[in-house]
């Protein structure tokens, strides 16, 4: 048992297995963000190693104590693929795909959340701060508070929180709200998400909310104040700037352009292969532009990176089939011997290769139908140290609240999307520079370290107010 003053609880551990059986840090932004504070405070991280049935003893990795939580194959199926990714994920993303409500999935979700809470209770020192991450673990805050009332508990929700009319579909809506309210601070990406949550709490639990404060009744008849507000997440902007300045990455960007036959313009989409990302809408718009003759295959190439994700969930298998049929049709109709309309890559790439792609691309297309934040938009902006390139950004992505100088689109409006793509392709350099400078200012001024600091400072304030009350 360790005695950590700061404990992060997330579905996944911050490490992946490397080919020779050791561990290496996972590429995600959250991991990069928390690494310095975890190291400084000798923190602990509770999470799943990503494969079923593994019993791994706790171990130290680069200054952080890692505490693996075991998931059996049926729990991966019911808690992770089922309830997390086939119930909550589609429901919270505005039912773009129909959520499935299955009682066996819920039972597994409760059991696994209890296991995570027990592990966190084990490793947290007296009076420690525990920071729970994301929708896979919504019950952990209250489960943990029941076991360890001495702890200060934060929760951050990385995905959208839906309007009450949709959230109300959830058969276990009450339990989920009560689970989340176990936290002292409940963080969301957008003001809108925090508002939806407060409304659900008022409507479903009949609690009072005032500004971002929620009065939560205690079993002893007393009450405590929980805070629900927006803390938009960001990226490690400096590391993108550093990579974008490396000569070998700039050379790689030129090589990518050359390998595509040096088209006049390159459009780029980078997403997990997920139905929330609007990849079909993007392909439809691009296919129609080719069909209409407004763009030509020799002049414009769309590079679409779609990294494999949740491949055993039916909705994801179906999406992959649909996208691959679309890409095949568009390329079949429009490719020439020397140029391809769409270069489709169902693969993941290292960060360095992504930065080279960002530098090689004239237009970045973020057409999400719903997205908590969309960090790819911020990565593109941070990487454009040359102040060139155009960001086309869906108003349904959290990033739209901050990135006002992007070309804003509604991905459902295919004609509007087509016009936006043409406008982006034709945008003069001076306007690109003006917009990109404004976008970069925001991303550079508010990076992921600011995000975690603001969240943890707010949590510390709430905890101080509680102990002095
Ligand atoms: C989103 C979620 C994360 C999740 C990630 C990858 O960004 O907010 O919690 O880790 O997708 O999905 P996966 O299911 O592979 O963990």
Automatic annotation (TrEMBL):
Signal peptide: none annotated. GO terms for molecular function: alpha,alpha-trehalose-phosphate synthase (UDP-forming) activity. SUPFAM superfamilies: UDP-Glycosyltransferase/glycogen phosphorylase. Gene3D superfamilies: Glycogen Phosphorylase B. The keyword Glycosyltransferase applies. The keyword Transferase applies. InterPro entries: Glyco_trans_20. CDD domains: GT20_TPS. Keywords: Glycosyltransferase, Transferase. Its EC number is 2.4.1.15. Pfam families: Glyco_transf_20. Belongs to the glycosyltransferase 20 family. This is Trehalose-6-phosphate synthase. The lineage of its organism: Bacteria, Bacillati, Actinomycetota, Actinomycetes, Micrococcales.
